[in-house]
Amino acid sequence: MTPDAMRVLAEPDRLREALTPLRRRLLERLRTPASATELAAELELPRQKLNYHLRVLERAGLVELVAERRRRGCTERILRASADAFVVDPTVLNSDEQATFTAIGDRYAAEHLVGVAADTVRQVARMRTAAERAGTRLLTFTLEADIRFAQPADVHRFADALHDAVARTAAEFDRAGGRSYRIVVGGHPTPKETGND
Question: What is the model's pTM?
Answer without folding.
Answer: 0.56
